[in-house]
Amino acid sequence: MADMFSRAALRPDVRWREVFGWAMYDFANSGYTTVVITAVFAAYFVGGVAGGAPWATLAWTSGLSLSYLIVMLTMPGLGAWADRVAGKRRLLMWVTAGCVLSTAALAWVGPGQVALGLLLLVISNTFFSYGESLTASFLPELAQADAMGRVSGWGWALGYLGGMLTLGLCLAYVLAAQARGETGSQFVPVTMVITALVYGAAACVTFALMREHALPQSDVPVVGVFRSLQGLRRTWRDARTYPDFNRLMACAVAYQAGVAVAISLAAIYAEQVIGFQPQETMVLIFVLNLAAFVGAFAFGYAQDKLGHKLALSLTLLGWILTCVIAALSTTKEVFWWAAAIAGVCMGSSQSAGRAMAGLMVPPTRVGEFFGLWTFAIRLASILGPLSYGLITWLSGGNQRLAIGATSLLFVLGLVLLIPVDVARGRRRALGQD
Questions:
Q1: 11: pLDDT confidence band, cut at 50, 70 and 90?
Q2: What pLDDT digit, counting tens, does each position of 266-291 carry?
Q3: What pLDDT, on a 0 to 100 scale, did the predictor assign at position 4?
Q4: CA 375: distance to chain centroid?
Q5: How far apart are CA 194 and CA 190, in angstroms?
Q6: Cα separation of 380 and 349, whole Å?
Q7: How many structural domains is the chain composed of?
Q8: How far apart are alpha carbons 105 and 244 in whole angstroms?
Q9: Within-domain flag for 9
Q10: Is 277 within the bounds of a domain?
Q11: Does residue 3 have a pLDDT over 50?
């Protein structure tokens, strides 16, 4: 056990309390993804707010895509500003407050209020995505290069515990509300408040324990939010000198597009295609998070032992299998197998990608380059769900065809991963190549 949490995994000036504080942010924000994007509000929006209209799934994926587009265009500039003033922690506090408040505001959304639901979805998911990028940019400052896989896995694993806690609290309330005869329009708003409270409370632990390790860099140009597109172009131009990082980003765009489908549409598919009831869906997502916890924790160590590239390849193969089983499943029992495999792959693939990126970014520009990494991930988050929504709409509601087509994204990710050389990318990031 001592070897699993060896002090040698951390940089010399980093204390364990800081790593715990950093990992607690994954614990804090995972409830948002689990309850709002995956398990509860997504299905409620399609079936309750939009009344199950044929365009409802496309509207949901379009709202998510708009928020990701905003993040794509602005995060590199925000990252460059944070690098210049050593302000990642300060900026993380502001975007956390924005996400917590807008998540609580989702409680106002009732049946028929599609525009309000989409507006608050865009706002909350934008702030969430900012926070996700900023917390990832702390990883190279905390972990040794040869231990980024396991440290990243600690964060993802604790994150899934946070998701399970938030979802468990929401599930307990939903079951009690249903016993009282309440409908979705009555109990779903309360779950939004529960999610916001857990997010805010757990994030306070992060800000109490984690400190800013970076020093101000006066040579980093100031890039305002409204000029972030220019900053993105400059960062992209500079990143061309890091070819393995670029190859990894291309791979991430492909496979993260598929992961985004699983995160944002799992509950919708379970209820609309397989026939799950809301409480059954919440239990399903709870178990999925449990599997993701195991995957993130175990694969964090597997990455460092087997190599990041091989570990990521194995998870992509698992994702392909997941999509095939989901597309062919006709019973809840079979779909449970797909969900279990997806859970293991979800935690491991996202942890592996973050760790590999951390190895290949220049140490003095982590905020800026993780902003570019966020651009790639958010591009994937647009392409995956939006293509799913379009296929569903154009095929007259055939979500089996849409989930089957999603497997091709993971196949493409495997192909694009082949030329990535992690060791070479690390040497280039350190200026040794």
A1: low
A2: 888 888 889 888 888 888 888 887 77
A3: 45
A4: 13
A5: 6
A6: 14
A7: 1
A8: 42
A9: no
A10: yes
A11: no
Question: Are the CB atoms for 335 and 326 separated by under 8 Å?
Answer: yes
Residue 119 lies in a domain: yes
Residue with tokens 């709002």: 36
The residue assigned the tokens 């500079």 is 238
Q: Considering the chain, what percentage of its residues have pLDDT values greater than 70?
A: 86
pLDDT of 352: 75
CA–CA separation, 25 and 185 (whole Å): 30
Measured between alpha carbons, how far apart are the two ends of the chain, in Å? 37
Cβ distance 347 to 295 under 8 Å? yes
Counting Cβ atoms within 10 Å, is residue 321 exposed (0-12), middle (13-18) or buried (19+)?
middle
Looking at residue 2, what is its pLDDT? 41
CA pseudo-torsion sign 276, 281, 283, 288: positive
Out of 348-362, 397-411, 413-427, which region has the weakest mean confidence (pLDDT)? 348-362
Whichever domain contains 412, its CATH number is 1.20.1250.20
Banded model confidence at residue 230, pLDDT cuts 50, 70, 90: low
Question: What torsion do the CA atoms of 242, 247, 251, 254 make, to the nearest 10 degrees?
Answer: 100
Residue in 151, 29, 12, 21 with CA at minimum distance from that of residue 89:
21
Among 134-143, 146-155, 270-279, 281-290, the minimum mean pLDDT is found in 146-155
Please name which of 303, 330, 327 lies closest in space to residue 314, comparing C-alpha atoms: 303
- Number of Cβ atoms within 10 Å of the Cβ of 396: 8
What does the angle CA 228 – CA 234 – CA 238 come to, to the nearest 5 degrees?
Answer: 140
CA 321 → CA 364, 383, 387, 407, distances in Å? 39, 21, 20, 8
DSSP string, 295-319: HHHHHHHHHHHH-HHHHHHHHHHHH
Structure tokens, 77? 């500039």
What domain range includes position 266?
15-212+240-429
